[in-house]
Amino acid sequence: MHKSMGKAFCWAFQHIEKFFIIVSYGSMTAIIFIEVIRRFVFNEQSAWSTTIPIYLFLWLAWMGASLNVQKRTHLRFTEMRQRMSYGAQFGCLILDSVLWFVMGAVVIYFSIEQVYISYDNFSIVQGTDDVMQWWFYLATPCAWALLLVRVVQNQVSDYQDFKAGRPLAVHAATFGD
Amino acid sequence: MDGLIISLISLGVSGLFILGVPIFLVISFWVIGVSLVIDFTLANIGVTLYEGLNFYGLLALPLFILTGDLINAAGIAKRLSDFAYACLGFMRGGLGMAALGACGMFAAISGSNSATTATIGSIMHPEMKKGNYDEEFAAATVAAGGCVGIIIPPSIIFIVYGFMMNLPIGELFLAGMIPGTLMVVAMMATCWFLSRRNGWGHLIKFSPKRIIKTGSKAWLGFLAMGIVLFGLSTGAFSPTEAAGVTTGFCLLAGLLITRKFGLKDLPTIMMRSGQITGMLAPLIAVSVVMQQVLSLLGAKAFLTGVITSLGGFYPILFACMAIVFMAGTVLESLPVTVILAPILAPIAASIGVDPIQFAVIFLVGASIGFITPPYGLNLYVASGMTGIPYLRIVKHVVPYLIALVLTWFAIALIPGISLWILS
After folding, report:
1. Which residues of B touch A100 (CB under 8 A)?
2. Which A residues in the span 35-74 are in contact with B, Cβ-Cβ below 8 Å?
């Protein structure tokens, strides 16, 4: 029982970005599409239909960034790295991880500040009565925390590959891999 | 002293780029380093990572990316490719030209360069290989064809440019139509010339019946193009709404008409689009911060001084184009636009270049950057898709690059190419 629950949790954790991306992408697209049709057919449109999608975009963008770290698909110039020695390639992968951590620390620290300001001011999404802005602003620190977890996971996997002498992940990955 | 440290930081991040560090991090570390040197608060990063994406027009970016994936999944892209081949297959190099034509048509529904290369490439590259074309040339053809993805409307990069420079996105879209078509024609002529010289490709008989048959099968693609064009030219809906409507249309077409995918396939399609969005949107946000830091450094005044000192209309215009071209060789088009457009557009305006025309000049230059080494995104996409080494594709893309640069100069020197449609 505990084992299967643990497995389910691990599976869910590995796919958490996908859940957020599908929910935010789907809702954003549906709101825009349905509201345009409503405007054409019924001559009416909700005031929040131009604001909520912008905030959903925040979740989509930053969870997408985390997914790209997990899949190692962020844009990069890979020609030099591919020609390096095995040890240097591993060094470059460590460098990537360190840089992600430094940037992550800066982003999480300062974006939490923004979330707090929004929370403290009871900022409400324009066009709504009770939808709080901080629910959406939370996207940046949450996604970046997850992104750093992916960095650690990748680094562990790189270390195992390095120890076993397997090829390292230094090639440019294509989208949808 | 600050200048020296900033130069060293710039040199250091260039080193990171060469070492293969993600471009997002390269730009971020330049921003962090320079902010610390000039005593500019890092809290700005926290704010701008929200504010940089807080624009309704920018939502067209994820929507047009999703549209591209839906067109592909619904089989509409394949039907458009078949139609293009039926029209052009009777000429030497017809299949290659059809791939370029299909890129143009795909670009008229989607708005992304790499999506155009990936989608049309996955359909046409195997066909070209079977059709007796050099496979490296075939990969270079789809990589080059993808360049029009961001010029023929709808276009993601036009949206970002309009957002940055406060220009009407609908007008920008319309202004990109003829230049985008001209780029396709120039590349087709190159493909025809090379195929004829090398004897590549098989010829098919010109058959109006086949054209009508494949054209009627591709009606969903034409309707999707019609929706975008109608909405934008009549002002019936904004670019974002046009993107939303086209996405909805392609979704319904795939689910109910072509039935190439079901509801259970939607998460996979959305994940693919989400991945591309998650790669481009953070780049936009961090490029906005870089642009702010550059402003504080007085980069705009410096660059304006250097360029305007050249004197005269043509030297200044060509200097602006050279800067865009050089930036495109090492950066993705989004950072190029976010960072350079606010600096170069006022310079161009000061010598009397129409802002809409300059937007087209700028973005055609940025789109050529997709196939310029060392960093050419479409070349990577084509390499990843076909398994052909990057540098071998680079060798074959040079003739297309020359054709595109010549077209670019024509667009820059003849304002009517961009502006006629608006008048």
Report:
1. 25
2. 36-37, 50, 53-54, 57-58, 60-68, 71, 73-74
pLDDT per residue rounded down to tens, chain B (423 residues): 678 999 999 999 999 999 989 989 999 999 999 999 998 888 888 888 888 888 888 898 889 889 888 988 999 988 999 999 999 989 988 999 999 999 988 888 877 777 788 888 888 888 888 888 999 999 999 999 989 888 888 888 888 898 888 898 888 988 999 999 999 999 999 999 999 999 888 888 889 999 999 999 999 999 988 888 888 778 788 888 888 999 999 999 999 999 999 999 999 999 988 988 898 889 888 888 888 898 888 888 888 889 988 888 999 999 999 999 999 888 878 888 988 999 999 999 999 999 999 999 999 999 998 899 887 888 888 887 787 888 889 999 999 999 999 999 999 999 999 999 888
CA distance B330 to B15: 12
Q: Assess: ipTM above 0.85.
A: yes
User: Cα(B120)–Cα(B81) distance, rounded to whole angstroms?
Assistant: 8
Q: Put residue B342 in one of left, alpha, beta given phi > 0 → left and psi -120 to 50 → alpha.
A: alpha
Q: List C-alpha distances in Å: B261 to B68, B69, B216.
A: 14, 12, 21
Tell me the backbone φ, ψ of residue A132, rounded to 5 degrees.
-85, 140
Suggest the residue from A32, A41, A58, A147 to mutate for an interface test with chain B (most B CBs closer than 10 A).
A32
Does the CA dihedral B169-B76-B383-A75 come out positive or negative?
A: positive
Element spanning B79, H or E: helix B76-88
Asked if B248 has any chain A CB less than 8 Å from its own CB, the reply is: yes
> CB–CB of B282 and A65 under 8 A?
yes
Closest Cβ opposite residue A106 in set B42, B114, B282: B42
Residues 77-136 of A with CB under 8 A from B: 77-81, 92, 95-96, 99-100, 102-103, 106-107, 109-111, 113-114
C-alpha to C-alpha distance for A70 and A151, rounded to whole angstroms: 7
Determine the number of helices (DSSP H) and then strands (DSSP E) in chain A: 7, 0
* Closest CB from A33, A99, A106 relative to B248: A33
For A100, name the nearest residue in chain B, comparing CA atoms only: B25
